[in-house]
Amino acid sequence: MVSSTYNFGKVAVLMGGRSAERSISLLSGEAVLSALKSQGINAHKVDVGTDIAQQLAEGKIDHAFIMLHGRGGEDGEIQGILNSLAIPYTGSDLTGAVLSMNKALSKSIWQQLNLPTASFSHVNRNTDPNELINKLGLPLIVKPVNEGSSIGMTKVEKISGLKAAIDYALHYDDEVIAECWIEGDEYTVAILEERTLPVILLKTPNKFYDFNAKYEANTTEYLCPAGLSKKDEAYCQQLSLRAFESLRMKGWGRIDLMRDQEGKFYLIEANSIPGMTSHSLVPMAAKQVGLSFEDLVMEILRASVKRISI
Questions:
Q1: Is residue 127 exposed (0-12), middle (13-18) or buried (19+ Cβ within 10 Å)?
Q2: Positive/negative CA dihedral, 305, 307, 308, 310
Q3: What architecture does CATH give domain 120-180?
Q4: In angstroms, rounded to a whole number, what is the distance separating the alpha carbons of residues 46 and 239?
Q5: Cα 267 to Cα 251: distance, rounded to the nearest angstrom
Q6: In the chain, which segments carry CATH 3.30.1490.20?
Q7: Bridge partner residues of 184 (DSSP)
Q8: Which of 16, 59, 128, 300 reaches 20 to 30 Å from 285, CA-CA?
Q9: Comma-separated ranges of CATH 3.40.50.20 domains in the chain
Q10: DSSP secondary structure letters along 78-104
């Protein structure tokens, strides 16, 4: 256990960056920065640019709290830079970041371990629509492999819409997958220091829990408790923890799941640096177990110390 009087020194809250999720990262980062300062931490805002290594070295940073969503933050890039500077940081290490960010790698690992996840296939502009639909059926969902916040995703309900969906996803990433559509409810499980928090049910009138449903619409509902039976709640949590550990994720994160019409749960994707405004999902789940936003932020920061002290 890290002492409450531990001196973290100068803490950089890394936010912004250049990904498609920059605006959300800035909101998360500012919320974390405020929480850290309220707890007496010597925390500083760092809007990450191409000179980040120089910024950190010249700023004599002792710890980094990573609040970079998407590319540059969840893909191992910033973790590699921090490793080279010997600066301890929050969340997953380089390996965990890479495996959890890349949806195809995540799903391949889950399949190898016989963890339930929807069937998928890599696609590109030359993909034969008939072959793909024979394999995955309709509807399906097309996704960029290395984007978060549902950016670049399209639900495809007719064969005529497939090419446009692939082109749209390729605008965001060179690697794209198509995945079987699972009709049912979407859930998410936050993980903090090897323990699972209460399951959250996400409800939206949109076709799926897309960027609009996450950050713009006022019609999205979040239910925590999720209304599951004790058995199903425990199963969701155990499955999510196995998925988290299989990707070598550390410290904290979130696993998203779907439940089909027959009641079977499927792993959808992993998030190594989820949103962290006061209204985000991880703080919502933490509140259910008595953790304030400030408590949650401090637990995430302390975990970075426990990892390097082993």
A1: middle
A2: positive
A3: 2-Layer Sandwich (3.30)
A4: 35
A5: 20
A6: 120-180
A7: 260
A8: 16
A9: 10-90+292-308
A10: HHHHHHHTT--BSS--HHHHHHHH-HH
Question: What does pTM read for this prediction?
Answer: 0.90
CA 242, distance to chain mean position in Å, is: 16
Encode pLDDT of 23-47 as tens digits. 999 999 999 999 999 999 999 999 9
Alpha-carbon gap, residue 293 to 275, rounded angstroms: 12
The one-letter amino acid code at 38 reads S
Active site residues: 21, 149, 215, 254, 256, 269, 271, 275
- Residue 275 phi/psi, 5-degree rounding, is -60, 145
The amino acid at 229: S
What's 119's DSSP letter?
A: -
- CATH assignment of 99-117+183-288, among 3.40.109.10, 3.40.190.10, 3.30.470.20, 3.40.50.300: 3.30.470.20
Q: How many CB atoms lie within 10 A of CB 248?
A: 16
Kindly report, residue by residue over 257-302, the tens digit of the pLDDT. 999 999 999 999 999 999 998 679 999 999 999 999 999 999 999 9
Rounded Cα distance between 217 and 222, Å, is 13
Cis previous bond, 88, omega within 30:
no
Q: Give the Cβ contact number of residue 213 at 10 Å.
A: 20
Residue range 10-90+292-308 forms a domain whose CATH class is: alpha beta
As annotated, the residues of the chain forming the CATH 3.30.470.20 domain(s) are 99-117+183-288
63 closest CA partner among 25, 90, 37, 93: 90
Instruction: Quote the CA–CA distance of 270 and 99 in Å, as a whole number.
Output: 9
The tens digit of pLDDT for each residue in 135-169 reads 999 999 999 988 765 788 899 999 999 999 999 99
Distance between CA 232 and CA 253 in Å, rounded? 20
